[in-house]
Amino acid sequence: MSKTTNKLTSELLGGDRRALAQSITLIESTLATDRAEAEKLLAALMPSTGKSLRLGISGPPGVGKSTFIEAFGLLLIKQGHKVAVLAVDPSSPVSGGSILGDKTRMENLNKDPQSFIRPSPSSGNLGGVARHTRESIFLCEAAGYDFIIVETVGVGQSEIAVAGMTDVFLMLQLPNAGDELQGIKKGILELADLIAITKADGDMKNHAELARDEHRNALHYVRSNPPEIFTCSALHQLGLDEINLAIQKFADTQKKSGSFEKRRHAQSNDWFEAELLQGLQQHLQENAALQKLLKEAKADVSSGKMPASLAAQKVIAKLF
Question: Which of 133, 202, 231, 244 could share a disulfide with 129, CB 3.0–4.6 Å?
Fold first, then answer.
């Protein structure tokens, strides 16, 4: 580990927000030298991780994820928590960076010294999260943040990756989301630990309550133990306390039953397997001899000389 990274480690463990931001930038870098330093940094920080509550939040566009997270984050801070928000934004096709930038959409939360907000581009990564969201969670924990919120891109029902890296998965739904219940059996709602119907104020309050009842009825058909469903208004701070209590209760119940640790262990194994596959893929892309082998195999498949399954097996056999 270089002197610079050593200094970064010390500052991050001291809770320095700038050092945390620099550390996340380091782990997101694709430069080989940066990646080597990032791995050393993570290894040094791992003993200081794992002490937060990790909350995943997803929902369709327009549901008000940022509004909810800002109001909820400020509530948590009032209760004595240090809150980190890892917000995954759609990527710009030009620069590759975040398009929306959640710091501009959570201005009040961002100003609070007990908060940290980091928008990261999805960069085409599937599942609604960024490539290095898991590592970012560990960095935030090492910096002393005891409540980590991971906000997904918000583009549909494929955003299941966040459920595999958090302790509680909260799904936000719109008051008029009845049509989404048609595909609930195969959808993201099957994975939600808690559900909240947003914008439950004014003329939309009755619609939100109706949507809550519809979700309850639908989920009873597809889940033996349906999640609790709430209505809330982040704009008017309604229902947030109840959701917070439900999150804490869910986590406490999981800890008492042993499911909390089992969930984290399973997530760690999933992370290892994902990194292993990613590393193998990168090795294939960077090795000239392997690229030649792949090119020949693809040519055989394209010309109809052999089926894809057989070509793939031959490549694997030569590799190992």
Answer: 133
Q: 236 pLDDT band (50/70/90 cuts)?
A: very high
Determine the structural domain holding residue 28 and report its residue range.
Answer: 1-47
Residue 262 lies in a domain: no
| Cβ atoms < 10 Å from Cβ of 8 | 22
Dmax over CA atoms of the chain, in Å, equals 67
Greater model confidence, 311 or 160: 311
User: In angstroms, how far is the first alpha carbon of the chain from the final one?
Assistant: 32
Rounded to an integer, what distance in angstroms lies between the CA atom of residue 320 and that of residue 311? 15
- CA 285 to each of CA 95, 194, 242: distance values in angstroms, whole numbers, following the listed order: 23, 41, 50
Question: Quick one: 60 and 170 in the same domain?
Answer: yes
Gap between the Cα atoms of 200 and 214, Å rounded: 15
- Answer yes or no: is 263 within a domain: no
The CA-based angle 3-14-54, given to 5 degrees, is 110
For residues 223 and 284, membership in a common domain is answered with: no
Q: What is the mean pLDDT of residues 108-126?
A: 81
Question: Dihedral sign, CA of 285, 42, 52, 144?
Answer: negative
Report whether 140 contacts 108 (CB < 8 A): no
Q: State mean pLDDT over 112-139.
A: 77
Structural domains in the chain (count): 3
- 223 versus 196: the higher-pLDDT residue is 196
Per-residue pLDDT reduced to its tens digit, 14-63? 999 999 999 999 998 988 899 899 999 999 999 999 999 999 999 888 89
| Together in a domain, 199 and 234 | yes
Span 221-239, mean pLDDT? 92
Helix (H) or strand (E) holding 84: strand 83-89
- Pairing mode of beta strands 168-173, 194-197: parallel
Comparing CA positions, the residue from 56, 85, 81, 59 lying closest to residue 251 is 56
Q: Are residues 130 and 251 in the same domain?
A: yes
